[in-house]
Amino acid sequence: MTRSEELEYRLNLLVQFGAIISKETNLTKLLEVIAGQVEKILSSQRCSIFIYDHKTNELWSRIARGLNNTEIRVPVGKGIVGWVADTGQSLNIEDAYKSDKFNPEIDRITKFKTKNVLAVPLKNVTGRIIGVFEVINKNEGNFNSEDEGILNLISSLAAGAIENAQLYESLYQAQLETIYRLAVTAEYRDQHDTAVHLRHISEYSALIARAIGLDEKKIDDIKYASPLHDIGKVAISDSILLKPAKLTDEEFEEMKKHTLYGAKILSNAKSHLLQIACRIAQSHHEKYDGNGYPYKLKGEQIPIEAKIVSVADVFDALCMTRVYKPSWEPSRAREYILSERGKSFDPLVVDAFDSVYDKILELQKKSDPRSTIIPGIRKELYRDDSNPH
Ligand code: C2E
Ligand code: SIN
Ligand code: SIN
Ligand code: FE
């Protein structure tokens, strides 16, 4: 490449850079995208982005590629990266192993041989240091002052996007936590293994959604909204919900309303996740053939997220002990799900369920599904397994 071709190449990449990073709100993905771009723009072997953690006064990095998602942590002050965070100055080192600032520990972890290093501070608009940008091993020669200028420029562009993603992530995290606590509250009364059931619903639904081929965003939505499917049970009285026997027709009619109560609780939500939770709560007992409740919706009228949670919910309910029923063997629960293909459940969802059945079993084995803390359930009180209602 001639000098002017090289400049043009870098300029083009820089122009694209802002557009590429502004689209990503997921912090991990954003950092990956930035690192990949920087490696190209600066023709270097590796770019690592270290983020400052003010709670521990450390810098962490997840961008060690080839090493799946290992998190590296270094104290501020230690090594090249720690020095840059501490002083706010850039460093350009031609032979890392001859530098007294170099911390060879990271090479030992990444099995990478650092030759030359260029590191610049990542500063936000107010000038506060939020991390360190580091590029390692330029493809030809050493890093020069032009590289340093470009890295500083990239760093100032990236800092805003990184701070946004951090903020978004902490808000999202807070939202997930609230949703989860709400879900625990709803399941608390009728299930001793609340946490296990909620985790199962969430994990099975995500596996099925992925097998269907939904995109990652949608999979996450279903994963995090599904624990709220039975939130409406908070409005069902103890005498019905906790009855250790088969419900009368009248009681079951009241029980069915948990779908409507759930939809009501979650209605008109501003949050995208709660809107999905609303659809799931409302429609997770609809059946593909139109014989479900509350609205007897059919086939494509039922939202896909509800159809997925329906299979995950019934499979897990069958495998778990309830006040009104003993647990089933997973193989029997699977047979039941398959036998309801095209009846209770969408064939597409049943096929997806069956294709990930082994993974579902693995997740299930991590906890003992048959454990119960409810003593002395009398077998004659269990309702007929083959005929729910
Ligand atoms: P759940 O216990 O979470 O069960 C969810 C769904 O799993 C049930 O929806 C049903 O489709 C399936 N399921 C659970 N146990 C069995 C079973 O033994 N056999 C079969 N074939 N399917 C089963 P469903 O029937 O609409 O019930 C919704 C909720 O109503 C249940 O949620 C539970 O909280 C309550 N419920 C249902 N039947 C009874 C009962 O006989 N006694 C009591 N106390 N509650 C019941
Ligand atoms: C250091 O910060 O001293 C090590 C740089 C690296 O290899 O990532
Ligand atoms: C919503 O999605 O927020 C409303 C759905 C409903 O009320 O059924
Ligand atoms: Fe339900």
Percentage beta strand:
5-15%
Number of strands: 6
**Main β-sheet, spatial strand arrangement:** 3-2-1-6-5-4
How far the N terminus sits from the C terminus, by CA atoms, comes to: 74 Å
| Mean pLDDT, all residues | 87
Return residue spans where pLDDT drops below 50 for at least 5 consecutive residues.
Answer: 369-389
Q: Note the total helix count.
A: 15
CATH fold topology of the largest domain: Hypothetical protein af1432
The CATH class of the largest domain, by name, is Mainly Alpha
Main sheet attributes: strand count, strand direction, barrel closure: 6 strands, antiparallel
| Oligomeric state of shown chains | single chain
- Alpha-carbon Rg, integer: 27 Å
Helical residue percent band? 40-55%
**Structural class given helices, strands, pairing?**
alpha+beta
Which word captures the global form?
A: elongated
Features:
389 residues, alpha+beta, Beta-Lactamase, Hypothetical protein af1432, 2 domains, 6-stranded antiparallel β-sheet, 6 strands, 51% helix, 10% strand, elongated, binds ligand C2E, binds succinic acid, binds fe (iii) ion
Q: How does this structure look, described?
A:
Helix 6 crosses helix 14 and helix 11 packs across helix 12. Strand 5 and strand 6 form a beta hairpin. By secondary structure, the protein is an alpha+beta fold. A 6-stranded antiparallel β-sheet has the order 3-2-1-6-5-4, sandwiched between helices. It has 2 domains: 165 residues, Beta-Lactamase; 183 residues, Hypothetical protein af1432 (Orthogonal Bundle). The C terminus is likely disordered. The termini are far apart. The chain is built from 15 helices and 6 strands. Bound molecules: ligand C2E, succinic acid (SIN) (2 copies) and fe (iii) ion. Ligand C2E binds next to helix 12.
